[in-house]
Amino acid sequence: EASLFDCVEGALELGIGWISAYAFSTENWKRSPDEVRFLMGFNRDVIRRRRDEMNELGVRVRWAGRRPRLWRSVIKELEEAEQLTAKNTRLTLTMCVNYGGRAEIADAVAAIARDAKDGKIDPGKIDERTISRYLDEPDMPDVDLFLRSSGEQRTSNFLLWQSAYAEMVFLDTLWPDFDRRHLWHACEIYASRDRRYGGAVPNQPPDFT
After folding, report:
1. How many Cα atoms within 13 Å fall on the side-chain side of residue 37?
2. From the centroid of its chain, how far is CA 163?
3. CB 98 within 8 A of CB 18
4. What is the pLDDT of residues 151-172, one digit of tens each?
5. Confidence (pTM)
6. Architecture label for domain 2-192
7. Checking phi first, is residue 21 left (phi over 0); if not, alpha (psi -120 to 50) or beta?
8. Alpha helices of 15-100 — where are they, by DSSP H?
9. Which helix (H) or strand (E) holds 98?
10. Strand pairing partners for 19?
11. Over the stretch 80-98, which tens digit does the pLDDT of each residue have?
């Protein structure tokens, strides 16, 4: 909890406009019932404790994820946080709860198929922008920096569509020890990267001096 919100404050200092936090994945249901109960209660209580603080900081809280199976008390806190902070513009914090990147894409494709069947969209005109409009948060920009702590070097099914050209930064610091300084370090690494989005590196003229 402290790590996430210290990073939110650090992001505000840098002028970062969007942060997404992986709070509970669709795969986390495979954990023991006791651990699932703990994570559900923890997420619910964190949102309840922090929403006023986030509102005062000008942070807009959003929720991405599936509704089925999620505790109603968690949904209630997420929706109340969304309503309270809806007009804030300094930073958008997306809480990804009962979220999975594959699930998000599958849900989008299913919704597109239903609308195509009902004649609401032309199947021949479906493109990447169409799919983006059907994602959980259609206005979320593509991910620039994908940051993971604890030395793990995998994306774990997080924001798969949005991270197509994200810069990956993996730090060894354990999440409970993480704070804004680690976020700033990751941003420095990101700033040093050469982002080409699949394009070629321009040929540099030889230097004969």
Report:
1. 3
2. 10
3. no
4. 999 999 999 999 999 999 999 9
5. 0.90
6. 3-Layer(aba) Sandwich (3.40)
7. beta
8. 33-56, 72-85
9. strand 91-99
10. 93
11. 999 999 999 999 999 999 9
